[in-house]
Design a protein that fits this description.
With 344 residues, this protein is of the alpha/beta class. The protein is 44% helix and 14% strand. An eleven-stranded mixed sheet has the order 3-2-1-4-11-10-5-6-9-7-8, with helices on both faces.
Amino acid sequence: MPDTDRTRVAPIAVDAMGGDHAPTEIVAGAVLAVREHGISIVLVGAPRQLHEALATHDATTEIPIVRAEEALEMNEGALASLRRPRSSIAVACHLLRRGDVCAVVSAGSTAGIVTTGRLRLRGQPGVLRPALAVALPTVPHRTVLLDAGANAEVKPEMLVQFAHLGAAYAETGLDIEHPRTGLLTIGSEAEKGNKLAKRAHELLSSAPGLDFAGNVEGNDLLTGVVDVVVTDGFTGNVALKTMEGAVRYAFGELRSSIEEGRLAKLGALLQRGRIDGLRHRLDPEAHGGAVLLGLNGTVVIAHGSSKAKGIAAACVLATSLAAGGTVARIGERIAATPRPHRLW
C-alpha cells in the first residue's frame, strides 16, 4: 500500500539526468516512489528521454517533466556547475528555491551538486559551510556522520556548526530527542589528535545546546556509542568509503564460504531471514544516501551507482526530512548559538 501519510504539500524534484544509470534507473526509482510510497515527484531533464523511460512503466501521465537543457557528467567537478547554468540539477534547485518543490534528489556528481546547491539555494543564515551527512546503520537507531565529503579542509568553529547540523538531522529525521555528539579522532583522550581536533574538542566541550560525549575513534563508528559523529570532509569520506568497502568484502567472503559446501548452504538457508535482514541494514541503497545540510532547502544526494531501489529510498528520505522541518530546526539551532567570525 502507498504511504499516503507523507506530506503532499509539494512534490520532490528528481534530477533524472544525474547518476551512472541515468535516466533509466532514475525514472524507474521515481515510479517506484510514486506507486509504493505515495510520493509526489517531478522529473527534471531531457523531455524526450524521460517520456520514453516513463512509457516503459506506463507512467507518462503519473509524473510530470520539467525541461533541463544540460546535465552534469559524473566525472565533472565543481566548476562544471558554473559552465552549465541550465543543468538538470540547477533547474531542480531553482524549483526548490521558488517553492515549487519541497526537496531535491540527485545521484549526480557530488562536487557538482554541492556547488550548485550553494549557488542556487545559498547557505542558511549564520551557516559557514554546508556539510554532507550520512546515517550509519547502527542499532538501536542510526548514527549521523558528517562531514562525509563536502569540505576537505575545515576550521574548528565549523566542526561545532556541523555538530548542530547533525543534531538537527538526528532530531527531525531519526526522532532522537537529545542526540549525543562525538568528535572523530585518533584517541578517546581530549589531548589526542591534530591541532584541528584538539581545538574542536575545546569548543565542543563548552558549546551551548550540544550534548558532547567527547572523542570517538574509527572502531566506534558502527557501535552506536553516540548519535552524531563530527569530522572534516576528507576524514569522513575516507571513513565512509572504508566502511562500504569492508561490508562488500565481508559479504563477498560470506558468499564464497556458503558456496563451498552443502552444510554451509544448509546453514545459510536456515539463517536466510537474518542474513537478508543484515544485508538490507548494511546496504547503502536501502537508506537513501547523504543529505546536504545547511542550505535553504532539503537536498539528498543518492549514491552515484544507485538503481531504482536506491532512488526510491532517496525520495522517501527527502520527503521525511522536508516534512520533519530539518531546515527550520537547523535555523533554530544556529540562531541560538554565538555566531563565529566568518572563516571563508
